[in-house]
Design a protein that fits this description.
- With 368 residues, this protein is mainly α.
- The protein contains twelve helices and no strands.
- Helix 4 runs antiparallel to helix 10 and helix 5 packs parallel to helix 8.
- The protein is elongated, with a radius of gyration of 35 Å.
- The protein starts with a helix and ends with a helix.
Length: 368
């Protein structure tokens, strides 16, 4: 290798310099240094290749911390959630952890282990070759979560699940093919002819994002009831759906564009790292926002929806877990009011019956 030849030249020149005397030895030493420096391998610029991968790994680690926090928060807030959702969160966290480990290994291999070996930069390491299929699997699981929500809506929306499933399966098949080709092709130069697989895979992901986001927004918009409290809650859900779908869609679209326009660099790989984290965090944010939305809804009900704000003016407003007991307390209060009205009605009826009986008695007496 070039480094081994460089070390051998330096050793020979140092021996020659040690055998010489005076200026001759000094001149030989200078010639040896200049010759050794001239034989150093030229390292190419890494700004748009492994520099981009390093930046993507750094941002991905930040988002991975957010993923870990949201996973911990989910299991603390929803210990009794349905098993399928718990399994989904566990799978997502496992895939994100594996994806993060691949990114760290890739950076360490190219920038630390082979920091002075330019020949190693010409071929992909196994961790880099596995990234497409892991990224595609994370996106597939997240799309499956949203597709399940559309399916549960039922009705005319079930055929859309077939379209979404087609995008999902297409994206997964393309990333599997890309991973297979990355192991077959030995160098990045040979791999450039197959970057269209990555582009097509992210194209399918963008299509699934578009269909899912549009469907959920349409369903929420049609769920308006005309009541201010309910419509404000629906508006919050619509804005949240737009924001989450827009975030994941932007990163997927950028990955698609750079994979098509700049297949010779690794900017699209860096965008893949951030895109994967955004998908996982969007799903976890949806799951963890359920309690806050319910508490907001109960707060609106407590503000006078039943016309009881005057009765609650001197009462301390419940918060946190106490707010979840409000639906159990309110039916009792309403029931008491209804019972009171029934009692009053019975009293009125009894009084009217008593009055009518007295009148009949007086009439009977007059008749007699």
């Amino acid at each position: 290798m070039a480094i081994d030849r460089f070390i051998l030249v330096v050793r020979n020149l140092s021996l020659v310099g040690a055998a010489g005397t005076g200026d001759a030895a000094a001149s030989v030493g200078v010639m040896g240094d200049s010759a050794g420096i001239g034989m150093l391998p030229i390292v190419p610029k890494l700004d748009n290749t492994f520099g981009a991968v390093l930046l993507g790994t750094c941002f991905g680690l930040i988002l991975y911390g957010l993923t870990a926090h949201q996973t911990y928060r989910y299991f603390r807030l929803y210990p009794n959630d349905v098993p399928i959702i718990k399994a989904l969160v566990t799978i997502l966290m496992s895939l994100e952890t594996f994806h993060t480990a691949l990114c760290i290994h890739m950076c360490y291999y190219y920038l630390t282990t082979n920091y002075f070996n330019p020949l190693a930069l010409l071929s992909g390491v196994w961790s880099l070759r596995l990234l497409p299929v892991v990224t595609g699997t994370v996106i597939f699981v997240c799309h499956g979560f949203y597709a399940r929500r559309v399916y549960l809506i039922g009705g005319l929306y079930k055929p859309l699940v077939i379209v979404i499933a087609g995008f999902m399966l297409g994206e997964l098949a393309l990333v599997i093919a890309a991973t297979t080709e990355s192991f077959i092709q030995a160098t990045f130069a040979a791999w450039e002819h197959y970057t269209w697989l990555i582009s097509a895979g992210f194209g399918c992901a963008v299509g699934a994002d578009l269909v899912l986001t549009t469907t959920l927004i349409f369903v929420l918009h049609r769920s308006r009831t005309g009541f201010k409290s309910t419509d404000s809650m629906i508006d919050i859900l619509i804005i949240y759906t737009i924001n989450t779908g827009l975030l994941t869609g932007i990163f997927s679209l950028l990955s698609l564009i750079f994979a098509v326009v700049e297949p010779s660099n690794l900017i699209y790989v860096a965008l893949n790292m951030v895109s994967t984290r955004s998908y996982a965090n969007s799903v976890l944010a949806v799951l963890n926002s359920r309690r806050s939305l319910v508490e907001r809804r109960f707060a609106q009900l407590d503000a006078g929806t039943f016309g009881m704000s005057a009765l609650d003016s001197d009462t301390k407003r419940p918060s946190g877990s106490e707010a979840f007991q409000l639906p159990q307390l309110r039916p009792k209060v309403i029931g008491i009011k209804v019972d009171t009205e029934n009692v009053q009605h019975r009293d009125v009826v009894s009084e009217s019956q008593g009055t009518s009986s007295l009148d009949d008695a007086f009439r009977h007496k007059e008749t007699v």
